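Appendix C: a fully annotated inverse folding record. The material below is reproduced so that readers can follow the format used throughout the book. The structure is listed first as C-alpha cells, followed by the designed sequence.
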C-alpha cells in the first residue's frame, strides 16, 4: 500500500533541514569532535595530569570567577541601561542606544589597549585610584564587563519595549512601592531574557582573549587567564596539551550553560502553567 504524504506547510523543509544539520556539523560538532580526539591521544592519565597543573587550575578559577562577577555586574548595569533607553526620552537617546553596540564593533585588541591606557597606574583614570587596576584581576573584570554589556541590554530591551508602562502604573495605584513593582511585575517578565543574555555573556567572557590580554598583566598564578595558557601551549607546538585544557574549559562552561538553560526552561514552564 502506498503511503500518501501530506504536503509540508513549509516548502523545501527537508532541504533546509539538511543544510542546517550539515552547517551545524561542519561548524560546531566537527571542531569539538576533533578537539576531543586530539585530547584523547594523551590518555586519561595524561589529560588529567595536564588539566590538574596548579597553573592551569589557577587560570581556570580566575577565568570563571571574573566571568561570573562580570555577569552579575552586567545583569545590574545592563538592565538599568535597557530601562533608561526604553522608559525615558532624552536628547541623545538614539546615540546612546547605538553606543551600546560599540563593544561589538571595536576590535578586541583596540579595546584592550584603550582600557590599559585608561586604567594604567599613570593613565587618565588609573592615576586617581589609590589601588592598582590595570594588570590585576580588577582590570580583567572591567574588560569583561565592557565587551559583554550589549548581551544583557539587547536581551532585556525588547521585553521592556513590549511591556507597557500601564502595568507599573496599575501596580503603583494599588499601593505597591517601586521595589514591589520591580519584583512582582517586571522581574518575572524579564527573567527569561536575563538568563538568555547572561548565558551568552558568560560564554563570551570565558573565551575572551584580545581585550583581556593587554590589561591582565598575565602573571602566572595571579592574573593569567586560560585562553593565554592555551595560546602559549600552541606556540610551543603542544597541540595535545592545548586541546586538553580547552576541552576541560569546554566541559565546565557547557555544564554552567546547561544549568542556565534548565533554569530558563523551568521559568518558561512555570509561566505557561500560570497562563
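Designed amino acids, in order:
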Amino acid at each position: 500500500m502506498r503511503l500518501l504524504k501530506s504536503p509540508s506547510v513549509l516548502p523545501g523543509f527537508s532541504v533546509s533541514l539538511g543544510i542546517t544539520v550539515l552547517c551545524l556539523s561542519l561548524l560546531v560538532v566537527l571542531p569539538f569532535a576533533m578537539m576531543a580526539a586530539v585530547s584523547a591521544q594523551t590518555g586519561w592519565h595524561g589529560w588529567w595530569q595536564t588539566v590538574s597543573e596548579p597553573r592551569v587550575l589557577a587560570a581556570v578559577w580566575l577565568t570563571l570567577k571574573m566571568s561570573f562577577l562580570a555577569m552579575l555586574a552586567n545583569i545590574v548595569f545592563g538592565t538599568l541601561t535597557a530601562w533608561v533607553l526604553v522608559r525615558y526620552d532624552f536628547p541623545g537617546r538614539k546615540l546612546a542606544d547605538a553606543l551600546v553596540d560599540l563593544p561589538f564593533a571595536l576590535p578586541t585588541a583596540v579595546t584592550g589597549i584603550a582600557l590599559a591606557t585608561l586604567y594604567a597606574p599613570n593613565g587618565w583614570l588609573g592615576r586617581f585610584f589609590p589601588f592598582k587596576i590595570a594588570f590585576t584581576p580588577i582590570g580583567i573584570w572591567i574588560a569583561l564587563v565592557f565587551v559583554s554589556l550589549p548581551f544583557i541590554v539587547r536581551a532585556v530591551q525588547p521585553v521592556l519595549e513590549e511591556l507597557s508602562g500601564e502595568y507599573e502604573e496599575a501596580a503603583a495605584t494599588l499601593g505597591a512601592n517601586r521595589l514591589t513593582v520591580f519584583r512582582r511585575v517586571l522581574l518575572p517578565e524579564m527573567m527569561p531574557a536575563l538568563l538568555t543574555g547572561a548565558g551568552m555573556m558568560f560564554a563570551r567572557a570565558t573565551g575572551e582573549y584580545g581585550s583581556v590580554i593587554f590589561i591582565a598583566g598575565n602573571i602566572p598564578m595571579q592574573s593569567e587567564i586560560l585562553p593565554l595558557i592555551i595560546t602559549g601551549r600552541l606556540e610551543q607546538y603542544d597541540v595535545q596539551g592545548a586541546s586538553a585544557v580547552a576541552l576541560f574549559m569546554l566541559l565546565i562552561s557547557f555544564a554552567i550553560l546547561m544549568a542556565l538553560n534548565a533554569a530558563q526552561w523551568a521559568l518558561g514552564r512555570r509561566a505557561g502553567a500560570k497562563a
